[in-house]
């Protein structure tokens, strides 16, 4: 298999699988870890594929946080037991739970030339997810899906139903491509939750300021494909993604790359999460 164009040519991509750790209730902990890992990668550390899940969270985009009744929408979500946060990468509101796999590719900018444009960044993630789903026999399409939550040009869909959204975050020396993949459960139920948030948060707002979410726009891989079995789709997808990443290594020395990796400490991650919370808090 050919290694995607934007992946580092002279180093492997380390796998950091934290999908079994559902203990961190603060969803910003994961985004803060991404931020610190990106700095590590930019300062000479290895490229990283970070996989994680969260038991119950609702992550808003910056534009969502500026809607007239965003605090009231957040209060509704918290009353339902959701941890809430505003993320620093692009995109709009996304609900997370154990059936949603979050995937971050953390890559250095090449020192030999200009940074790739964001379309090229996104194509790396598209190729990874397509390859992971190749065995299902389903075509994975790219393009914005009308009525889906967190809509974007790089929505991934099967048979017209969105199951994945992609965003990015750039630092000076490295960048993060982040994807959420709805693996298990009901896509339409998640879409209804997002719609209920906007019904409150965007009351009276210009419809151009927020996505008009429809329940029939979104589905999970469990609903769309044969990957995995009942309540096992997320695990199967995670395993397949890791197999694809390993197949891209082309015999490179993972041991040497691992020697350049230092996992940030919990206190450092929590401090970064608090900084992000203060910076991107609801107005």
Essential attributes:
283 residues, alpha+beta, BirA Bifunctional Protein, domain 2, 7-stranded mixed sheet, 3-stranded mixed sheet, 10 strands
Number of helical regions: 9
What's the gyration radius in Å?
Answer: 18 Å
Largest sheet properties: 7 strands, mixed
The figure for the number of domains is 1
CATH class: Alpha Beta
Helix content: 25-40%
Global mean pLDDT: 90
The largest sheet has its strands arranged as 1-2-6-10-9-8-7
Q: CATH superfamily, please?
A: Bira Bifunctional Protein, Domain 2
Beta-strand portion reads: 15-25%
The residue ranges in which pLDDT falls below 50 over 5 or more consecutive positions are none
End-to-end distance: 47 Å
- The CATH topology turns out to be BirA Bifunctional Protein, domain 2
Coarse shape: globular
Topology pattern, helix = H, strand = E: EHEEHHEEEHEEEEHHHHH
The total of beta strands comes to 10
Structural class, from secondary structure content? alpha+beta
